[in-house]
Amino acid sequence: MVRYNELIIDGVGTSSFPFDVIVLEGPTIQVGLSKDKLLSHDGVSGYIVQSNPHREAIEKKYTLQLINPTELQVLEFVQFLSKRNFWLENQQNKLTRWFCYQTKVSDTQRDKTKMYSVEVTFVCHPTKYMKNNDVQTLASNGVLRLQGSSLAFPKITIKGNSSSETSFTIGKQTIKLEQLSESAVMVNDPQNPSFLDKKGNLVKWSGDFITIDANQAQKTVGVVLGPGIQSLVFETNWGWL
Q1: Alpha helical stretches, state H, the chain
Q2: Is the pTM of the predicted complex or chain greater than 0.85?
Q3: pLDDT exceeds cutoff 70 at 193
Q4: Looking at the DSSP assignment, which residues form a beta bridge with residue 106?
Q5: For labeling, which of 26, 170, 201, 217 is most exposed (least CB within 10 Å)?
Q6: Dist. CA 81–CA 63, nearest whole Å
Q7: Rounded Cα distance, 184 and 180, in Å
Q8: Could you tell me which residue, 104 or 55, shows the higher pLDDT?
Q9: How far is CA 184 from the centre of its chain?
């Protein structure tokens, strides 16, 4: 099978089908529109800027050409495109991927050579995420090295033992634990946060789930381990705005 530029959708590549799929567009680096608001005021020239550090979603548009598929294969391919909440990769982008909310698929058109053309638009989060998670382990007070330029939500594994209250601090954020028995995992994903011990029980804690802003000149954040905490393991999917 001829190998063209490939899109990988939820772990499955366009080259995995029993017919050739040509991706006409090459990889692009897109930036979501700023959510800053420009407010008009009679007393000033120009605008007053109401700052907002977040960005709008982006749309990644591709034209896919399916070479001599059957009608059933076209239906199966369109179903493959019609996913929600998945990772999108372009084979030619070696470092980054996108988290997509949904797809918009146009009508498929067949020409005289039995080639079908499909216009597909992926509606994606504005952050360009790294394909591989970064893992950093701290066995004492130290720093977390930041990458990228966007907000990050690390998965943190806390190891140690403490029969009384303990805590750890990341930058200006402090997490207090009622106690710690061997290990616990704090998942800071805003869509599905959790804080459980190794048996899957809820941890008794206070504070807020951790958000790290990598868009700063100082590319490290201080980390302090409280009594009884032996180590913190950070698994972070950094990204770029």
Answers
A1: 71-81
A2: no
A3: yes
A4: none
A5: 217
A6: 12
A7: 8
A8: 104
A9: 23
